[in-house]
Amino acid sequence: MVQFYTPWNGHCKALAPEYTDAATELMKENVALAKINAVKEVEVADNYDVRSFPTIFFFVDGDPEIYNGRRTKNAIVTWIKKKIGPGIYNLTTEEAERVLTSEDKVVLAYLDSLVGPETKQLAAASKLENDVNFYQTTNPDVAKLFNIEANVKRPALVMLKKEPEKVVHYDGKFKKSAIAKFVSANKLPLVTTFNKETAPSIFTSSIKKQVLLFATANDTDKLLPIFQDAAKLFKGKLNFVFVKMDDDEVGRPVSDYFGVTGDAPQVIGYIEEDDRIKFTFEGEITLEKIKAFGEDFLENKLKPFYKSDPIPETNDADVKVVVGNNFDEIVLNESKDALLEIYAPWCGQCQVLEPTFNKLAHHLHGVESLVIAKMDGTRNEHPRAKFKGFPSLQFFPAGNKSIDPIPVDTDLTMVALYKFIKKHAAIPFKLEKPASSTTSKSSTSKVGVKMEPGNVKDEL
Q1: What is the pLDDT of residue 453?
Q2: Which keywords, in A-to-Z order, does the entry hold (predicted)?
Q3: CA distance 361 to 372
Q4: Closest CA to 293 of 306, 309, 282, 305
Q5: 347 backbone dihedrals φ, ψ, rounded to 5°
Q6: How many CB atoms lie within 10 A of CB 241?
Q7: Measured between alpha carbons, how far is 272 from 279 in angstroms, rounded to an integer?
């Protein structure tokens, strides 16, 4: 397992002790854990398309698989053991006590035999749920410890969690896909409090539609019970998430991401897919209104909203500033080719790219048919601005803005970016070198671009 990190990233710092403890425990499994400083090893990070930190890969025979689970020692160890182990474990009475004490959520199957078709279905389901340990037993005493009656019809299966909804019994067919669907729907609490530990399990859940309650400590006691009652109505269909707005470390940044301002409680619907669509809840937060909101959400009847910074009063720089509300005007203008960078202010790679991007825009600022633009992806959204990490560079050819943009898949150097633009521009342009650098420090090309010593044309 390899972790790509940056020294200044807070999430990387928080992961460090958990990652070290996991490495210690996994030594006996003959699994090595390593770290790569992406600041020093930029080329290696680029080879694996690392765009956020920490990013963790598990390698088997040289083939990488990304780890999206919780960033805790137990979650990492459980995930890797699933990858290298049998998937299910036979549980004795002695081991049962340890499992119930040490593990946050577990699945136990009470069977007639520890080998056979039911064990195969259970093992296959286990491979689909990497962050939950699966166990099996034929011992009625073990089954009783897991709230299964000794005389129950077998196969029987139960999921235990350390939360108010402690025991969930399964009553479906004993088939891989059905068991995995049951576990996926029930492994999260009715309402998950958003924090560093729970975030990965929220966003990697098979249930992609989320309803989020944003509230401060003053409103929590009043609103959280209402929210929990609503969650019961949509179990297995919607994920309900509580965000503590006055938690400066996690809650406030999450609130900012969703465009939630002030201290008044708010409810937002969210689809965690490529489009990252949000929906606002209007009115008083009551059980009846959340129920209606949830039903409309499931039936796709809600109108999405997109956050935006104010449109700049002036926008005369070489690199145009794009916000959600001027995206159509600048990027989707059919008369212009547009190169757009979607960035984050805290992104180290974005900061490295900035001088190159500015220099490129400066040398091309006279090409009337071309726009070089940037958008802060943490504060602005648009249905056509789709991205998975920062920086995201996309090219929108003139006259064809209805299709998906062309992803920039070249080196992030000025020359490479210039060649990319020349190749994909729908409106051709040409830059010419000055006839003589001694007679004039600058000249004008056929499209009015001033050429100076050391510019793009010289570098080519």
Answers
A1: 36
A2: Disulfide bond, Endoplasmic reticulum, Glycoprotein, Isomerase, Redox-active center, Repeat, Signal
A3: 6
A4: 282
A5: -75, 120
A6: 25
A7: 12
Euclidean distance between CA atoms 182 and 235, whole angstroms: 11
Q: What sign for the dihedral angle of Cα 269, 177, 97, 67?
A: negative
The length of the chain in residues reads: 460
The whole-angstrom separation of Cα 193 and Cα 189 is 9
* Nearest CA among 371, 400, 209, 224 for reference residue 299: 209
Indicate the angle between helix axes 10-26 and 73-84, nearest 10 degrees. 50
Q: Which residue from 242, 380, 238 is spatially nearest to 305, judged by alpha carbons?
A: 380
pLDDT band at 269 (very low <50, low <70, confident <90, very high): very high
Map residue 130 onto helix, strand or coil: coil
Q: Could you tell me if 244 and 260 are in contact, meaning their C-beta atoms sit under 8 angstroms apart?
A: no
* Residue 289 · residue 223 · CB < 8 Å: no
Q: How far is CA 3 from CA 16, 23, 42, 79, in A?
A: 10, 12, 14, 15
Count Cα neighbours of 206 within 13 Å in the Cβ-side half-sphere: 16
Write down the residue that tokens 């969210």 correspond to.
270
Name residue 322's beta-bridge partners.
Answer: 375
* Lookup: tokens for 80: 């890797």
Rounded CA-CA distance 49/390 in Å is 11
* Residue 448, phi-psi category: left (phi > 0), alpha (psi -120 to 50), beta (remainder): left
Contact (Cβ atoms closer than 8 angstroms) between residue 338 and residue 414? no
Residue 180: pLDDT over 70: yes
CA trace torsion 224, 10, 375, 256 (10° rounding): 20
Tens of pLDDT, residues 317-371:
999 999 999 999 999 999 999 999 999 998 999 999 999 999 999 999 889 999 9
What's this model's pTM, rounded to 2 decimal places?
Answer: 0.61
C-beta of residue 83 within 8 angstroms of C-beta of residue 60: yes
DSSP state of 197: T
Give per-residue pLDDT as tens, 182-218.
998 888 888 999 988 788 778 778 788 999 999 999 9
Better-scored residue on pLDDT, 124 or 449: 124
Cα separations in angstroms, 165 against 104, 111, 160, 179, 369:
12, 24, 8, 18, 60
Distance between CA atoms of residues 356 and 343, nearest Å: 14
Among 141, 36, 132, 34, smallest CA distance to 91 is for 141
Residue with tokens 């809600």: 302
Angle (nearest 5°) at CA 30 between 25 and 36: 75
Cβ pair 77, 25 in contact under 8 A: yes
Q: Which position has the higher pLDDT, 434 or 104? A: 104
